[in-house]
Amino acid sequence: MRILVAVKHVPDIQSERSLGPDGRMVRDGGDGTLNELDENAVEAALTLVEEAEDGEVVVLTVGPDDAVDAVRRALQMGADEAVHVVDDAIAGSDAVSTARVLAAAVRRLSEEQPVDLVLTGMAALDGLTSLVPTVLADLLELPALTLATEVMVDETAGTVTVRRELDHAVELLRAPLPAVVSVTDSANEPRYPGFKGIMAARKKAVTTWTLADLGLEPDQVGAAGARTAVVAAAERPAREDRVLVTDGGDAGVRLAAYLVENKLV
What we know:
Layout: E1 2-7, E2 9-11, E3 32-34, H1 36-52, E4 56-62, H2 68-77, E5 81-85, H3 95-112, E6 117-121, H4 132-140, E7 144-148, E8 150-154, E9 159-165, E10 170-176, E11 179-183, H5 195-201, E12 206-209, H6 211-214, H7 222-225, H8 251-261
Parallel strand pairs: 1-4, 1-6, 4-5, 5-12, 6-11, 7-11
Antiparallel strand pairs: 2-3, 8-9, 9-10
């Protein structure tokens, strides 16, 4: 079983984020990291391969030079190999442009060796659109099973089954392989790379591809290929409605009254 995991390098969620004059997120803070929600996808892939006692996990990312840190983190967790697509023309890509690059990379990897399953996180914490998994599946003409809290693969039957928990129902969805599956942060508890994994990752290969390697033209990606654009942006105004409660023994009661009054419970 060969599983490909698409991951993203994003600014640390705890950092102060802003948009530049071009409407793009400023990413030069040096605090980039593997998208936290993608760790769940990496963990799901590693678990499936370990349970099958066979197979490999390939991680794939699209982004500037420092995006390679995202796949290196996945290699430390236990992924077998990594691919980094980097090209100046990719800057400014929206979800559709990004999915277009990912799809081209998945096709190339599939030509080299069939890919049985493509996993992603449920969203990237810098944009939170959750669009890439579905668009990627559409471009690859594969089934899309999103927001999975559990992923089960039957290699004999050639199917993947996911459990999806909704507000008032639990769904079990099944599709033939290959398929694209996004997992939520409830799917598992990502493993923390140990010293052995960190050392082993140094010897693992990271393949670098450009757009030319994928047969894509610059006007198909980046801002030129994007279907969305930032029209305007403004700094979030400082909050003026804060209520500071000094606990004189009735803080709990006052807090409960505030929540009820503002229909927050």
